[in-house]
Amino acid sequence: MTSRGRMLLISGPSGCGKSTICDRLREDPRVVYSVSATTRPPRPGEVDGKDYHFLSKEEFRRRIEAGDFIEHAEVHGNMYGTLRAPMETAIREGRIYLVEIDVQGALQLKALDVPGIYVFIAPPSLEELRHRLEGRGTESPEQLERRLAKAADELREKDKYDYVIVNDVLEEAVAKIRELAGLGKEPA
Ligand code: 5GP
Questions:
Q1: Which residue owns the Cα nearest ligand 1 atom 8?
Q2: Model confidence over 3-12: pLDDT tens digits?
Q3: What's the pLDDT at 3?
Q4: What pLDDT, on the 0 to 100 scale, is given for residue 2?
Q5: How remote is the CA of residue 4 from the centroid of ligand 1, in Å?
Q6: Are strands 37-38 and 53-54 parallel, antiparallel or unpaired?
Q7: What distance in Å separates the CA atoms of residue 140 and residue 148, rounded to the nearest whole number?
Q8: pLDDT tens-digit profile of 144-161?
Q9: How far is residue 177's CA from residue 116's CA, in Å, rounded to a whole number?
Q10: Average pLDDT of every residue of the chain
């Protein structure tokens, strides 16, 4: 168990490989993953309560009013929010609380002075990002163009983070982030 609980925030344009990096970081028992709430419908294979808390628009609104979110944002036409209570518990217990979030949300947390390690994951290039998004095949051509235009804007915000990690070689990116979070090398 790490002696100092803190938030490890991973952010960056969609398709930059955040989820894969976070999946790897989550394998460490000292890491607690922040399960966001969203109004977007589940994709095939996604599990409620594990990937997201899938909420109706009404329920999401109710929870905003109840003050349950540290931040919430509309991303690509759906609502997403970070829940307050699980973060407070995990940090109190001395764990690394892993928050995977879009750039808007990350900058909201920064503006609120939420303490933590803010990491921006950058794609090797916008061209590479286009290939990755096309390969994923989850977006329509219009959505893809929208995400790429947004990614170009988001890249301009990277200097507001504590660290920028270029996700070229996955293993190297994971190792660097583990080091930043004080997790050390991955067990063999
Ligand atoms: P996706 O629908 O592809 O899972 O996520 C779309 C975007 O929403 C991603 O960039 C993801 O990081 C972001 N996102 C996920 N959870 C949250 C959250 O709790 N708050 C905010 N602001 N963005 C989030």
A1: 102
A2: 589 999 999 9
A3: 54
A4: 45
A5: 26
A6: parallel
A7: 12
A8: 999 899 999 999 999 999
A9: 13
A10: 93
Task: Please work out whether the CB of residue 87 comes within 6 Å of at least one atom of ligand 1.
Answer: no
Q: Put residue 91 in one of left, alpha, beta given phi > 0 → left and psi -120 to 50 → alpha.
A: alpha
Identity of the amino acid at 87: M
- Ligand 1 midpoint to CA 101 (Å): 5
Domain assignments of the chain as residue spans, ordered by start: 6-180
For residue 12, which atom of ligand 1 is closest to its CA?
10
Superfamily, domain 6-180: P-loop containing nucleotide triphosphate hydrolases (3.40.50.300)
Would the pLDDT of 1 be above 50?
no
| Alpha-carbon span 188 to 184, nearest angstrom | 12
- The SS3 assignment for 137 reads coil
| Amino acid sitting at position 18 | K
Please answer whether residues 52 and 58 qualify as being in contact, where contact means their C-beta atoms are separated by less than 8 angstroms: no
How far is 99 from 116, CA to CA, in rounded Å? 10
Question: What string of DSSP letters covers 36-96?
Answer: -EESSPPPTT--BTTTBEE--HHHHHHHHHTT-EEEEEEETTEEEEEEHHHHHHHHHTT-E
The H helix count followed by the E strand count for the chain is 7, 9
Q: Is the whole-model pTM more than 0.85?
A: yes
